[in-house]
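Appendix C: a fully annotated inverse folding record. The material below is reproduced so that readers can follow the format used throughout the book. The structure is listed first as tokens, followed by the designed sequence.
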């Protein structure tokens, strides 16, 4: 059997308690005959995590955090550990999102440590990689992806504890998407690098595409070889859009 696809939402710094109605609708959609083979997880701000877990608890939709600190606890004001996310009911956590890499100066070594922290707590790590527009224009996309896979993915990663998300930075929140050929090339390259690093464990590891995924382009993007799902930002805030993307499979 093929890899079961995953549609993951990332609410980023959006959402208050009023937004929980969208999550209820998402949960209900997956409960009531949504025509999809996909699994789903929604990563929400830490302030909403416990509420989200409760709302989605009787549905197949899982809940995740958006980042974690590599340490379990300690004097790190304002930070959240993987153990805290697990305690609140999360099953997944995003690490190395491009917004964290650029806004907070995160490097591959820190992202790798965060992925290991996620496993330590019993969470699945969603490790984000992707080139900037300058890197794409310079023709270094595949080189950047090689470096990020080698540096950000711990060598003991398995298909069960790790998901890769390929997000071209220039496609995030811009409405721009790479061509299908460019997505296929990037995902095949990432798969090959994962096989180099992990061996057989890489064959069934999910590689999600992220960057301006919406219901209208989901079928094309998700139909590309080695695209095992989507990481959805803006469109995950609207239940109808998130469900529409899930149904594109
Ligand atoms: O984590 C999600 C991505 O950054 C994609 O965001 O769907 O708003 O482009 P977007």
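Designed amino acids, in order:
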């Amino acid at each position: 059997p093929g890899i079961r696809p995953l549609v993951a939402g990332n609410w980023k710094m959006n959402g208050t308690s009023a937004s929980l109605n969208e999550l209820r609708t998402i949960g209900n959609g997956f409960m009531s005959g949504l025509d999809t083979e996909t699994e789903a997880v929604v990563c929400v701000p830490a302030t909403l995590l416990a509420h989200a877990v409760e709302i989605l608890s009787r549905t197949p939709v899982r809940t995740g955090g958006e980042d974690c600190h590599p340490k379990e606890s300690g004097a790190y004001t304002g930070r959240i550990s993987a153990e805290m996310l697990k305690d609140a009911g999360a099953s997944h956590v995003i690490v190395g999102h491009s917004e964290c890499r650029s806004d907070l100066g995160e490097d591959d070594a820190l992202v790798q440590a965060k992925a290991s922290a996620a496993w330590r707590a019993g969470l699945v790590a969603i490790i984000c990689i992707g080139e900037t527009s300058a890197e794409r224009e310079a023709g270094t996309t595949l080189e950047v992806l090689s470096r990020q896979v080698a540096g950000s993915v711990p060598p003991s990663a398995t298909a069960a504890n790790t998901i890769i998300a390929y997000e071209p930075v220039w496609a995030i929140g811009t409405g721009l998407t790479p061509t299908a050929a460019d997505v296929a090339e990037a995902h095949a390259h990432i798969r090959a690098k994962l096989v180099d690093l992990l061996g057989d464990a890489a064959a069934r590891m999910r590689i999600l595409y992220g960057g301006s995924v919406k219901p209208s382009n989901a079928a094309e993007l998700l139909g590309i070889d080695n695209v095992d799902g989507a990481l959805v930002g803006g469109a995950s805030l609207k239940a109808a859009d998130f469900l529409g993307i899930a149904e594109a499979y």
